[in-house]
Fold:
Amino acid sequence: MYKKPVVLCCYKLKCYFYFFCVTVIQGQNDWGVTYTPTQICALKGSSVDIPCTFTYPSRINDLDTTVGQKFWFTKESNGVYVDLRTDPLYSGRVEYLFENNNCTLRITDLRESDSAEYKFRFITNQDGKYSGKTGVTLSVTDLQVQVTKTVDNSYPDWAELKCHSRCVLPGHPSYDWYKNRNKVWGKKKMYSDYEFNPSDSYFCAVKGHKNAPSSLYIPSHWGVSYSSTHICSIKGSTVEMKCTYRYPSTVNSRDTTVEKTVWFTKESNKEPVDLTNDPDYSGRVQNSCNDNTCTLRITDLKESDSAEYKFRFTTNQPVNLPGGRLTGSPGVTLSFTDAPTLPSVSVSPSGEIVEGSSVTLTCSSDANPEANYTWYKLNERVPRSKKTKLVFRSIQSSDSGVYQCEAENGLRMTSDYVFVDVKYAPKLPTVSVSPSGEIVEGSSVTLTCSSAAEPAANYTWYKKNESNQCSKDPELVFSSIKSSDSGEYHCKAVNNLGRKESNYVSVDVKYAPKLPSVSVISGEIVEGSSVNLTCSSDANPEANYTWYKGNEDSPKASGPIFTISLLRSEDSGNYHCEAGNKHGQHRSTVYLTVVAGAWKLPVIGTTLAFLLVIVFLVFFLLIRKRRASKQPSNSGDTPNSREQASKDDLHYASVQFSKNRADPVYSNVGPVAARRHKEEKEEVEYSTINFNRASTAPRTGRIR
Structure:
């Protein structure tokens, strides 16, 4: 079949669905929800199925239509629909019987509050949202028994009962009737009882629905109830009597209305005499009714007012029906008594009350009849005692407070307040530190001591292992705390009944490292040896150590000990130790000097001495050779002249060697006279050297 394309340009269609200028392939099926039927009547407590079907175009704008959400609702607000499955009023009672285009709703355990209009809604991928314009109206009804009683001399106890519902139940149901919970008759909606008794009970049910019966019809549903059936008062006072009355809202499809209410103590010609018209109560009686509650108020009571007071109400229903008019009986009995006198309270023993001692509170009052006593502590609902005496065998600080007693013999009188003040030694003090968290040097810190005590305690602060008091106030204040303030503190709370010491509280002051101390752990610092540089600083938390040399930025080592092995001369210089933690850092410097090794000095000295000896020997041989070559051969020389010549050419040389190998080897050449004052302390070896030369001038030399 040819399907004509239709262009729709529309906007919101009554909250059912949305289209915005789309091309629709219109076919035989269109958007819609069909409900059959649209009106349903169901019994309270039963189950109901609400059937429906829905249709939609299979294709729009060349796009197949699919259904996303499907649900039933009764409530909608500003375009928001409440799914029955999420409504707490239907929790556990709703079931969706969805299959293809079937959208049946099932509700179980029906309640009268379920009466509403139900609608089905579905949402598609085409932005289509649709609900039926009108839904299904569900009326949930219960069954009621209506009674019609006709005066008939032949059947004085005859009555006709009807099983009534507020809506028409589907089909032609049959009914079951029950009298005093026993089945007595069936099939029809009407039931005639020729032995109707107001003390009997009746109910009806649709056959097959015994779990949804009518409300129980009990003629005694007509009634009067009094809040109190006996009142004891005193002359001259005011009294109030209260009652509530009840009646069926309808009888034989006729609404019940109350036409008259009256309080009375007397009857005249079998009719009650309204107290408001009784001359004995003139000006002293008031009857006020609100809803189904009536209150009788009598002022300026007299002893003659002692009587039984009854309440009667009359309705618009025939008086031959049960409860057409009803008197509450028995009524309220009013009697008089002497009220208790103001109770007096005594405390034993008198004087100061100390924790742990025995204390008795006694209440007394003149009353006729004798009064009963009740003890209360202020702001407590539960009585402390229902005897004349309230006894504390070992009274506690928690028993301090305000007490009063009540004397009652039908009338109540309450004593004046009595204050019980329990004295006690200080309890275990509690200590708090403010501010909480980490304590940093220089900050303000307060320790607070508190203890429950009566009378109030005096406080003293101590630091552990110190005999001197830190403070005599509840608060120990450090306006600028120091590292030396770290330690454990406790306080003492004292009054005239005793003392108590708190537990210790630790004060841990955090601070930056102090000026580090640097030391060198080694013997003689010479090349090739090892040395330990040690750094220490007082800090909290513990400091971290870093070593630097001279002006270098890169650290040489970390840790409190810096070890340098195989020292060299270039290791000499300034070394810096930096101690740091999260609160700061501090630096100290040590200078390290590395000297040459001791083994080098003797070698150098020996080498120099050896070289000097060689130099002198060479010099000596050169001079001798020169003199020998220049001296003439003179046979005429006499021995004396040769001896003199020998004396003239004689020189001395002195060579001295140091005994100390650590001292450098040295040599000096100079006249003998110049160092004569040292010759006695030194070992000198002499050598005689002859110089042969032509010169006759005497020359002497000394080598040392």
